[in-house]
User: What shape does this take?
Amino acid sequence: MSRLFGSVRAKATLGATVVVAIALVAAGAAVLLSLRANLNGQAGTEAERSAREVAADLSGGASYDRLRLDDDQRPVQVVDGTGVLVAASENLRRISGTGTGAVKPRAKRTAAPGSGGDATDDHGGGKGGDDKGGGDDSGGGDDRAGDGRGKAGRGRGAGADDDHSLEPGRIGAAVNFSEGSATLGGDTADYRFAAVEVSVRSKGALTVYAGAPLSAEQGAVRTALTVMLIGLPLLLTVVAAVTWRVTRRALRPVEGIRSEMAAITASEDLARRVPVPDTQDEVAGLARTTNETLAALETSVERQRRFVADASHELRSPIASLRTQLEVGAAHPELLDVTGAVADTVRLQRLAADLLLLARLDAGERPAGTRFDLAALAREEVSRRPGVTVEGASAEVVGSRGQMARLLGNLLDNARRHARSRVAVTLRTEGPWAVLEVADDGAGVPAAERERIFERFVRLDEARGRDDGGAGLGLAIARDVALRHGGTLTVGDARGGGALFTLRLPGHA
Assistant: This one.
């Protein structure tokens, strides 16, 4: 179970599901907030429209009992400047979220006897037909008083609230919104209230509160939330299932590569290769790279096996010869070939040194960063070998002076073994490169053998007859040293016939 949940498939599926879940939750929250904001905005617009309609009636001089407050879906309150409810919807039973929690306007008030005032109530009802004093300053009768109508000629009653009904009021431009609840009849619901201020000279400053129901917004949000709560798990299940199947199909070649690599490890057969899928994706690239690595490993192991076999063979001959000479000398001291024993010992010493150097090069030993003059080193090596000429300008290189001396010595010894009469060393620079050439006037190297001679323990048949005891490691060591120094070593034809070995090394200004 732990292996299953620790697999790439499980991690990819879990990661994809978590990412999609986060994205869906964020998107759902944004949708819900946007939906709620839009529906709240619509409810606010409706509430403002209702409040302004009532405010317009008040501004036009309508009395409280003539206001349009009979909408069963729109709770309305009219509050005066002192916070007293002066008008409200008839079926309003409870309200919250507005300026006052009162639901019934103030009861009718009667003027005190002898005050000369009219009897009025909060609904604006007055004594119909009452005039404004029966006369003017000159004592003359007012032609409008006592006509049986007063200001009731507008059909709204002749109360004190209508004294200035012909003078329009002012409606405030600002709107304040709030949220609360109200009970209309027997139904309780949440509302969004809009508060609009209106100023009427006969009534003073008033505030109209009108509400629009939030049931549509709440229902839409609940529906959307329900859909999301049901759809989100279903969608995540689909995403997880699809991701699981897709990753399974995508990783199937990886499982094939893994099983084949396990079989190769068990069988130790480096000739086997992993299957390469018919795709151009990363898995196919992994398979190709794995096969390239197996091929390089097979070549390296085979090269190591040949190296060990050839080294054993090369060591067997001088050791056997030396043992024979020592055994003969032990039995017959007078027959001991001291010179041959020394020669075999020197040959063993050189072979051991060559094998040790190759082992260090194969291990990836980096050359030292010493700066030296390649021309001076070439003259020093030539001075130890008569019959070799050298010419050319100085050229500084960086690396191991000892390994480079070994390279030059191997090239010179090889050229002297195959030359008829002359070996020449030339040195020059070509741009950033230092170029050293070793030419001889021998038979040269056939084109088909020019790469093979750099392999270890390889000696051409013609060279084997003239060999003075070499094991076929000199040129292999020379090329490996050149490669470790970032250079190249190749062989071609000399101008006058013979072999031309060309060494190129990065120069140092």
